[in-house]
Amino acid sequence: MHYDMVPLGERLRYMQLFRLVTVLLLLVGRLVAPEIGQAPLGGVLLATGAYTLAFSLSEALWRFGGRRNLPLFGLMLLVDGVFLAYMGYATGGTLSPVRYLILVHLIVVTLLASYRTGLKMALWHSVLLFVVFHAQEAEFLDPIDRAYRSLPGTDYQRLSTYVAAFWLVALSTAAFSSINERELRRRRIDLESLAQIANALEKVHKPHAVASVLADGLADTFDFQRLVVLGEPKGEPTLLGHRGAESTAAIEPGIDQLVRTAWEKRETLLVKSIDQGPNPRLAKWLPDAKNLIVTPLLAEDRPIGVVVAEHSMRHGSRVEQRVVAMVSQFSAHAALALDNAWLLERVQEMAETDGLTGVANRRTFEVTLELEATRAFRNGDRLSLIMADIDHFKKLNDNHGHQTGDEVLRTVASALRNVSRDFDTVARYGGEEFAVILPNCSEEEAVAAAERLRMSVASAATVVPVTISLGVATYPVHASGGTNLVQAADEALYESKRGGRNRVTQSVRSLSDAFESPVSVAGTKSP
């Protein structure tokens, strides 16, 4: 029995209502039309009373024990069959009106329990009908339907005809119930999967993680062989997540026709195959894909991505509307999570970067320097720091205006970033002063890096020619920690300025003699 579709307690209440109505109908019928059967009224009342007591007691036990008394549900179905068989015998045998109640009982059981239980009850009712019939023939029971023997056909023929019709109803009801149960089970599984993916999406905050959760959830729930999740935070969509796709394929920038169409229509598309001409990117990610579901990812009706999935269905079949609807619901949850992830990234970027220049801000510099100093201490590595200052920046602002000064700051920041390593941290330290953190970099390498920075700024296409002065310090040669490293590099920077600007100066601090005068190296005095 599939009691997980509807609560068992609710099923039991409906079943008890049916039993109560059955008892009332039988009693009223027996009292109003006593001629329909020849069984003594006392026997009928005794049987009815015993049956009423049985199902009332079963309800009390169920309320007390709950699911621990689950076998009681099946036992009472057997009792139902015995009671109806007796009442059929007592009210006319093979021509008793109770036979219609047996049919109704069968339909009710099939719908409230399951189609399997309905078939079992059909067999139980059939056995009881034949047992009662043959018991009368053998005179174990008084042949109570003798008054009807003048009607056409024999008792056995009437019974066989009724049982045949009975099984026709049983099989038809079971078939429809089976279809209904299967659909309910699918929907329950879909809803459980939707709840699981929604819960998983709440725990991830990176766009690629959101796309991976969506790809895995769709593939596992709907048996998609291959799929891709594309996202479009800025401009053209990129591959964020996939299952079974050619993710390493070289992809030209652009937007495929299928993606654009799904975005424009704001609805899921069903596509037989990918036309490589207008869809070169999808054709490379999903070569020779068939039976595609293309679902846009919409955030506040704004397209931010798309899911393209290959459905593994049989030849000639069609994608179920249920699948299309559930993919859309999965995608709606993921679109919201994806949009939130991008928003979080933008907020974090704003919190960590300087709004004017786009490089790390002072707070990010301090946190990064502390982390790198701790790592260098733990691993025994070198950590270098370059402090840089734009030469004569106040004069530049006075002569050309603050807008020109802002443009110079952006250009200098870009020049510093262009010649730094990917894992170096370029930051605006304050005003016209910049800092560059160089992990795992010796003092000689740091001086060479500083010289590259100086030359990059000097050759940059700024609105007015600018140069920078730089100071270099290295842990643990010139300082014992992050704070001392900043002091050592800053002292070297101001020595560069005192020495004529547009030059690199390496700190000569040491752990034993921190205040020795720095020496200018690799610099060129500005004119």
Description:
The protein has 527 residues and is an alpha+beta fold. The protein folds into 3 domains: 8-188, no CATH class; 207-348, Beta-Lactamase (2-Layer Sandwich); 362-521, Alpha-Beta Plaits, CATH 3.30.70. It is built from 15 helices and 11 strands. The chain has helices spanning 8-32, 41-65, 70-90, 98-112, 115-137, 155-202, 207-222, 257-265, 280-285, 321-352, 362-379, 393-400, 402-418, 443-458, 482-498; strands at residues 224-231, 238-243, 269-273, 290-299, 302-311, 383-390, 425-430, 433-439, 468-475, 504-506, 519-521. It has a 6-stranded mixed beta sheet, sandwiched between helices. Strands 2-1-5-4-3 form a 5-stranded antiparallel beta sheet, sandwiched between helices. A hairpin with a 6-residue loop joins strand 1 (224-231) and strand 2 (238-243). Helix 2 (41-65) packs antiparallel against helix 3 (70-90). The longest helix is centred in the middle third of the chain and has 48 residues, at 155-202. It is elongated and about 130 Å long. Residues 1-5, 146-152 and 513-527 have low confidence and may be disordered.
What portion of residues belong to β-strands? 5-15%
**Helical segment count:** 15
* Anisotropy-based shape: elongated
Mean pLDDT across all residues, rounded? Answer: 83
Radius of gyration: 42 Å
SSE arrangement, N to C: HHHHHHHEEHEHEEHHEHHEEHEHEE
Which sheet architecture does the biggest sheet show? Answer: 6 strands, mixed
Helix content: 55-70%
Structural class: alpha+beta
According to DSSP, the number of beta strands is 11
Number of domains: 3
